[in-house]
């Protein structure tokens, strides 16, 4: 084998190894989060101290902390460990941009993904692990990183009433309410209970202009008289047919000149790029009966199908905002 061919083989084999090896750092991070390792490393501590605090095996603790250090999540000096800047900002439970709840949800997804072989054969979900608390609070973790900017980009001029449809933890409802918009948060009853607690913790010592409707948005009434209906990261959980029916229901709930705005993961027309969105479709295959990620062209096409006007698209990092207006 020529040297150039050998180098090419090694390069491509390394790429393949990176793919199949990808579960290892993910599993280490999820386990560290489960044990709240980062809450205990806001200052440098020894292996023995962490082992005793978490009631875990000494040998395992040392190996585990070294791996976290290698991943860039911890710092190690004089055999004492502490959080790296990344962990300090996102993995300490008392801080505002904490992402530990979405990691708890990811831990459940990890278990469900283990059934992918069976899912591919049957086309049926493999949904063995789920925590609504982790899922809804995890959605708040993610939305809290961008909600203020998304609402700014949407623009609320002339908006007096809004519906946050499938609004989960209410993160976007909070940002709209701060702008003096009366917001109705619609979601399932068990989700509403979690959202109320989150909203109460974020809007203190003042009356909130957020109201609630509990139900299933495919079958129950969603109210009416809205200047804006915001649907964030909800459409990928249901089928194309159900999405079109839902969007028609939303159109009928709008005031004249009102808007529907969809936020979803950006996915190319051929549904292969970016990779994370293509993998999110696999996640929907595993966890739902009919969901998948939809391309930006599909989302725009649905708004055209229900005869909204002024269709606009805006890509923001890994997501896309699609909007349409009722004439």
Would you spell out the secondary-structure blueprint of this structure?
Blueprint: H1 3-20, H2 23-34, E1 45-46, H3 47-54, H4 58-70, E2 74-77, E3 80-83, H5 85-90, H6 100-113, H7 116-122, H8 132-144, H9 147-154, E4 161-165, H10 171-177, E5 182-187, H11 189-202, E6 210-214, E7 226-232, H12 240-252, E8 254-265, H13 275-287, H14 296-305, E9 309-316, E10 319-325
Parallel strand pairs: 4-5, 4-7, 5-6, 7-8
Antiparallel strand pairs: 1-3, 2-3, 8-10, 9-10
Helix pairs in contact: 2-6, 3-4, 6-8, 8-11
Describe this structure in words.
The protein is an alpha/beta fold and 327 residues long. The protein has helices spanning 3-20, 23-34, 47-54, 58-70, 85-90, 100-113, 116-122, 132-144, 147-154, 171-177, 189-202, 240-252, 275-287, 296-305, and strands at residues 45-46, 74-77, 80-83, 161-165, 182-187, 210-214, 226-232, 254-265, 309-316, 319-325. It has a 7-stranded mixed β-sheet with strand order 6-5-4-7-8-10-9, with helices on both faces. The chain has a 3-stranded antiparallel β-sheet with strand order 1-3-2. Strand 5, helix 11 and strand 6 form a beta-alpha-beta unit. Helix 2 packs across helix 6 and helix 8 packs across helix 11. The termini are far apart. The mean pLDDT is 96.
């Amino acid at each position: 084998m020529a040297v150039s061919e050998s180098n090419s083989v090694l390069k491509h084999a390394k790429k393949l190894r990176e793919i199949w090896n990808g579960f290892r750092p993910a599993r280490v991070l999820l386990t560290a989060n489960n044990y709240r390792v980062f809450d205990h490393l806001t200052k440098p501590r020894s292996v023995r101290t962490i082992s005793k605090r978490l009631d875990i095996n000494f040998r395992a603790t040392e190996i585990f902390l070294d791996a976290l250090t290698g991943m860039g999540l911890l710092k190690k000096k004089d055999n004492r460990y502490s959080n790296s800047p990344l962990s300090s900002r996102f993995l300490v439970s008392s801080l505002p941009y904490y992402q530990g709840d979405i990691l708890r949800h990811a831990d459940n997804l990890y278990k469900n993904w283990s059934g992918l072989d069976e899912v591919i054969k049957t086309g049926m979900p493999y949904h063995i692990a789920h925590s609504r608390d982790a899922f809804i609070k995890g959605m708040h973790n993610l939305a809290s990183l961008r909600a203020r900017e998304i609402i700014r980009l949407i623009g609320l001029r002339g908006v007096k009433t809004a519906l946050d449809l499938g609004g989960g933890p209410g993160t976007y409802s909070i940002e709209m309410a701060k702008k003096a918009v009366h917001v109705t948060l619609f979601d399932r009853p068990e989700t509403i209970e979690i959202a109320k607690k989150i909203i109460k913790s974020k809007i203190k010592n003042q009356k909130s202009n957020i109201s609630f409707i509990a139900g299933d948005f495919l079958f129950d009434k969603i109210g009416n008289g809205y200047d804006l209906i915001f649907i964030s990261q909800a459409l990928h959980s249901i089928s194309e047919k159900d999405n079109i029916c839902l969007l028609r229901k939303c159109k009928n709930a709008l005031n004249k000149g009102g808007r529907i705005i969809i936020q979803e993961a950006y996915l190319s027309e051929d549904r292969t790029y970016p990779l994370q969105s293509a993998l999110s479709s696999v996640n929907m295959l595993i966890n739902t009966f009919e969901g998948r990620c939809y391309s930006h062209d599909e989302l725009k096409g649905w708004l055209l199908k229900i005869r909204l006007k002024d269709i606009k698209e805006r890509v923001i990092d890994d997501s896309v905002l699609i909007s349409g207006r009722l004439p």
